[in-house]
Structures
1.
Amino acid sequence: MPVAANTPIDLIENVYANLAANMAMGREKLGRSLTLAEKVLINHLASHDQELERGVSYVDLRPDRVAMQDATAQMAWLQFMTAGLSEVAVPTTTHCDHLIQARDDGKTDLLAASENNEEVYDFLESVCAKYGAGFWMPGSGIIHQVVLEQYAFPGGMMIGTDSHTPNAGGLGMIAVGVGGADAVDVMTGFPWNVRWPKAIGVNLTGQLSGWSAPKDIILKVAEILTVKGGTGAIVEYFGPGAESLSCTGKATICNMGAEIGATTSLFGYDEAMARYLKSTGREDVADAATRVAQDLRADEEVLQNPSAFYDQVIEIDLSTLGPHINGPHTPDLAREVGELGDEAKANGWPAEISAALIGSCTNSSYEDITRAASIAREASAKGLSAKSKLLITPGSEQVRATIERDGLLADFEALGATVLANACGPCIGQWDRSAEDGHTAGEANVIVTSYNRNFPKRNDGDAATLAFVTSPETVMALALAGRIDFDPLVDTLVNDAGEEISLSTPVGIELPPQGFDPGENTFVAPPANGSSVEVKVSPTSDRLQLLEPFEAWNGLDYEDLPILVKAQGKFTTDHISMAGPWLKYRGHLENISGNLYLGAVNAFDGYEVGYGKNQLTGATQTFPDIARSYHEASQGWVVIGDENMGEGSSREHAAMEPRFRGGLVAIARSFARIHETNLKKQGMLPLTFANSEDYERLAEDDRIAIRGLGELAPSQTVNVEVTTAAGDTWSFETNHTFSAEQIEWFKAGSALNIIRASI
């Protein structure tokens, strides 16, 4: 399967060729008009004889491509290598964006990353060459920005091993974040299995103005739906307000749909998308999409009467939407910027801002940068200076080269800003603040970012850092003030001459008038025949480790399982398998298992975060140490989670680590979609309490038995028997979401074991 630096037009035209016929089939099958998401999904069905019941049916789909970032790609490729195939079955790319640590500046940090991660980069480049995948070198940019610029197209479908893959929905693509095992399915030619999603419609009316930005739309939606309100659903934006947004503005909104748990988000094809395609050198794609435009948006009847076609409809008037900011610690805690000062005072949060950060996969477009730069330019002209440390992260080499050419980087540098590498950096914990003047780890401090997540320790590994997320222009204004109790709509700043200055409304430019500068060529195409390429994994490496298949289920009920951890409150993938310094072990399952549950808050009293009781020894230990002890003793165990367990990243390490260490069952009040699927893929048993109050009854010394596994079947409850330390027993019922096909994954020990057996 040949892979280029962009999506070939013939692939796109092949997708469009069947649109009309498949839409007619879909309308007949469902007996009604179709939403946009339904159109794209139906056009990618592996077969037409599948049930399409929202929130119930599981379907097999055929995505057009797979994209992986370097942290998650390692484990995905290690799994693929065990399948025995000579090449990938669909166009696949690997993007080096996660392993570059932010410390000094872009050039210095990129050189350091190339040296420190040489072994991993060599592995990824060689494995891509061997199996026919494209490789984007370090410095290329953040995967989602590169995909938007090069690969995304209206009506297409892709999966990616990163939770913010939905960024491509800004270009009308169904793009879904998945774990590596899902990616391997598609890379090996198997269909992608997923529950047919529910549909949430967001009707945008009016038009943004002033300081309001697309970021404010998704912050408002997150406030309405909360972090799990989109679980199992595709969020579809429509209405006149949607058409008023730029393509990259749409991408910002879709990107952060991951923060509400949505399967993905998308917009219908319109003129803004056509403009973006043409500006990025894809006139042929724009022309092809325009010819089938009616099938690249929801049917007219749906748009006229959305409540009859969506499971939930949200109405937002953009004309009345003010600039918002969320945080700390959760992406659904949003309010208007002007309200944050009083809230901070009431909660005892520091008012001073230690650092302001602009960029990330969410907000590093040309339009984003121009709006923030317009404020920076005015500030310099009026004698204002940044009161907080200011960091700028271009989203891609193309964006970096273009904003440098157009003088925008100079606008930020005039205020003392540091330009970081074209990479994720501080957004995903790759931020080394050890040399930062005035910053002491462990001391409460506030940062403001244009990023997407703000979990504790998310950005700098410091639980004392309070992270607030807002638009790039608002970040810039707050950096000038140096305080979070500043409202750019009404407050003034004092310049070097003692004059009071009101900031002007930010001015953005949708697309570069001179076109995009592609910058350096950082794409490496695979050879025509990679059979002679050697993929080297040293047996003594502490970064890479070949995988052994997980054992199949032995056909017996699970008995006498201790509870390794009962997590209280937030139990995100950051709590389960931290990023930051642990990213270097993403290709070494044993070593990265050293972070297992380190961020978990123990629901049992008397423990620090990440600590619990070893039931074999009675000792108080870290959770990874307890897990290793159980593993070495061949003792299976259970993990207990609270609401929305596994919220956040797509990282399958959060499922592979417990499975590697002997974890057999995860029981929670509820699961995030990707994490639940990852657990299933790796052969674990994710169950939810039928009565959520049973969570409270579980004691530290209880032993767990899972009954009736031989009769495990879709939609049937699973009985859990509890034996207390005193020898008493009680039981409770749990639910699961396994399909008949997914039960076979469990029986085989993993979904990959089934693939191995069939090839």
2.
Amino acid sequence: MNPTIFNAKIDFVGKSDKFNLYFHQLGGIKMTSYITDLTDDLIEFAEEAEIISLNSEKIDQALELSQQLNKSTQQWQIYLQLLALFGFEDWLKKREPDLRIIVEKASVMQPAYANILDVVCNLQVGEFKICLIPTNYWSDSEVNVPRAILDLPEFIAHFYVLVGIDETLEVAAILRFIRYDQLNSYHAQLQPQIDWTYSLEKEWFNPLPDELLLYLQCLTPATIPLPAIPSTRQAELSQIRDELATQLLQLQSRPLWNSLSWEQGTVLLTHPELLNWLHHSNSENTPQQTTYLSDLLQILTQQALNVGQWLQSQVNELAQELSWQPLPMGVFRQNLTSSSPFEASIFNEIRDNFGVEIPEEAVGAYQDILNKIRLYPLSWSLADSQEEWTLFLIVTPIPGQPSLPEIELRISDQTGILAEEKLDSQHNKSYLLAQIEGTYDEKFLVTITTTDGEIQVSRLFEYRNSPNSEIIN
């Protein structure tokens, strides 16, 4: 005999929203203990909390987004983060629709951070930074948070908001909040846990969400000053680059705190490019990912050669300080042979055989590597864009050498390996070509290696028009 299930509905009115609680009557016996256990926490906060019903569309969206992540162990935490975000967003739109909320840069929208931080930080409301702290333990006296949201300026917020989640009842609640300056006053009392978390007392938080709305409308961000991001981040990474690379390659799926010191974790958390690499390497553990980690660390720590300055008559300074030799002006005119016959023959041949048009205004230089290989980086701005540039690379044997040795050419940027070209012992080419286009904020790492290991060099290029840009090898 199948049991009979009856649904009964209780209307429960919070401060500004109505939500429905369901209990079951099974076989004629009311399951009062079930409804009591289910609502104890809600009743405790009924007079203070702002209750928001989570509609099925938002729940499905949170479920879908969390399932797209590769780390299955974190999907539940991501799911709670998304429910907290959607609940807070709905609450804000209902209570103060004029306040603009920006979610694109929120940590939960970036898989690399969502996998690591069990909060929603870098959420923006107007000019304020907000950090949402999801919890499904509403009645606990403490809440655990990542220490990064208090110790690292990149993640510190003006306001920290405690959001209760009950996925069974499909509700969220704006429970409490605290300003950064108030929370920071308790910092001396906090003891970091081994898993890089702090335990915060809930009684430190303001239980009146209406006051948060008042602050968001009446205060300015300057009222709650936040610490500046240190200018030493690149130097910190440079100091531990090699040891961090070794640790990252051995991490596999272990928690960061289980393998790294907090100092190493700080460097990792403040370099999103490394976190993105870690996120992708967990799902695509390939030799190419290992190679790219080496490239990425060089991009983040190596100082770049600014080819944009070649357009500002600063080539002479470059030639004096470095081993790069500037190409004479006008060398890219068609059929030019008088001022630089060797280069002119190469450029004319490239133009004729490959149809590559090098504009006359292009500038460049060359560098000889171990008296075997000559590298030409050429550069020019794209005619139809004010924010994009081209890096055109030519690798040739130096004059007098018959052909190139067996070499590999690799070009990487902060997103991955863009191009790879290899010349084996059967080739009969006299040069190797590559062309990359990018915006002014992009850097390109060019790596040349010979198969015998004799040559392995990397050069980092960028394009900046600032006259104060530093020229560095």
3.
Amino acid sequence: MAKEFTSGAVICQSGQPFQFLHMIVKGTVRAVYSDGEFFLDKGDIIGLCALQHDSYVFTYIAVDDVTLASFPYKTGKLSDLLSKKPDFTPLVVKSGLKQMRDVMEAYELTKYDCDSLYRYLTDSYKEYCTFCERYSISPRLLPELENLSPLVLEEDIPAWLTDYYENMAAILTPALSASKVPTCHFVNGLLMKTSLDISSIMSVCHIMYDYKADLARVLMNENRLDLFDLYTSLLSRIGHGQEDSTAVIAAAGRMMLHLESTGSIDRTLYETRVREYKEFLAALEENGTGAAEGKPEQTQNADAIAGSLNAILDYARCEPETADAFRKQITEYKQQIDKNATDDANRKLRLSLTKTFYQVYVSAFKESLKDSGIPTVVKMFFLFGYVDEELAGRENASYLYSIAERFPSSPENHVYTVYEWMKAIYEGRKEPSRNEFDADYTAYIHELKTTGKITAQKEKEMADDKSAKVLFELENMFPLVNKITFGRLTTFCPVFSEHNVLKDLEKSLVTAEKANAALHEIRALDFGAYYRETFYSNPEIGIAKETVNVEILPDIILMPNIGIRGVMWQEIEGKRRTTPARVMTSVFQMEDLMSTIARLTGEYRWEMCKRVQGARWNDLSEPSLTSEYFDYIQFYKKNHDLTPEAKDKIKSAMQKAKNNYKEMFVRDYVTWVLYEGAGSPRMNKVARNILFTYCPFSKAVREKLKANPLYKEILERYDIKNSQKLHHMDNLYQKLNKGSAGIPDEIATQRHFLES
């Protein structure tokens, strides 16, 4: 059966059911996979790489006008086809060996690219640090680079495989040329093994492609926390006329060449960033000085911020030895050119400085409770971890001063600065958070009594002691979460330092407006994210027990650091399911805030489901978000609804997530709301079904997705179930309208929820 395809036509799509082998009679075909391609010509066979699969492994596209001869194929039945068509055998063997060679070459090239790109990144960062040292500039750390390590393949292909197939080709090619055709059983075995080996190689390649994409993000990413920004920012600091400016410009030029050849980089992002750099470079050359010299430093608050450290210590009234130690530690820290150094001396300095910082913070907070007119510099200390104008950079310090008096938080709308949060606990409006051992304040003081550290009478007194409660928060949640949200655990230091400023402060500042806007966007996609099921009963009007959903928005607490992470600390307060979750993020968030809030919502979704399901959170006999997702990841290798490529991606993702099921789900959730919610499918069929079942999109988003066939089945299923619930609600409305009590707010809210 002959088939014709014009240039550019897709012959077979990856994941499409594998029902035919196609021999190329005329033309050239591209075999396309995640990060590469190879070419098939006249006499080659399409589909040999998928002989033991139910679907095609690659996507095949016609390069020019192509004619194919097609042969029906059933998985594992190649020998039947060969026995019927012996003339087909030499072509199948030659094409199979050729495709194996092409795949092996792709594997070797990808491995080389990964190793060389990693070396380039580490060498470039070392060079950047050398430049910084020369100009007494504290080098910035890159979060993405900090988390990278050399490529390690836990399940690499055996070293002998290349030689095996090279020798097999050397043996068989002369035989086939001499028309000495091997038996169909030998060919069947050879090609079945080849197909399996190609699958194994591509599985390793997919892992390397993901690794290479991670490396590419270090070079350039949408958050500008990248190597390219380090070099361009450094150039603005040292200026055009310095001796090393030429070397920095040359290094940035080499980086652009790497970026140009890296397929993982978004082209629009690349072009925008390069254009900005060239414009900056032109301005720099024209002025002949650094950008910093051409921009006058903010000085309007210079007098007010002078001597900040002494002002803070005077206010705190801490012990003299504590104050002296803090001054000494800050002075020593300021003198370190590389404040991220990991040698013992620097590590010990950061640890001792961290300990003293919290001692000063607690003392200052206690003093503030008696003061209605807290000095602005002290507010900067509370809100941002600010202690010294030189350490912060005078321009940064001036900006902090300008916003400290009227910081744009909003406790009434669930967004608190850390100081406002501590005040809320002190005033009894909030209860302390759980500690790192998941014990709340009540459990903590009970443990003290049980272990004989306090008496029963003392336990009773402490239960209502507002000072003890806020001290528990200051000594437990605060230090730990401050470190976690900072994100770079090995180099953490709680004081505000200029070297941690990776982006413009004003743009990275998390205000109540920004936080709530991001949260609103997530809720507009995943409308049920913060709704919780509860029961409503009102026997007087005939409602025995109705399931209703109530939205309870989280408390967002802004930690005083320049960080890259958020953390969902607890999903409820105590045992009451109708209390807000507590999520924390840095007050200056270096990462994209929308992505951070999406991630926190995913964490909340997972933990809240575990809370509701209890010990049976992973028991599939009680279907839930966590149980179905756990089952999906645990048994993905046996799932027939997943393509080989999908399985490879899950395997790679599991390695990145260190086999953590919650982390896997959170990553999928972020993809779900930010990409699938925008109409850009990126998930496999199984994960998409689970997410749609338990985190369905809002009505507006569902309407937009109706045109996409990927969502047709799950949308229809959802609409049927929701219609049944709405029908029940309609009947309830009719019943209630016959009475005189009207429609309770709880029932009206539930109807609105179902209509959403």
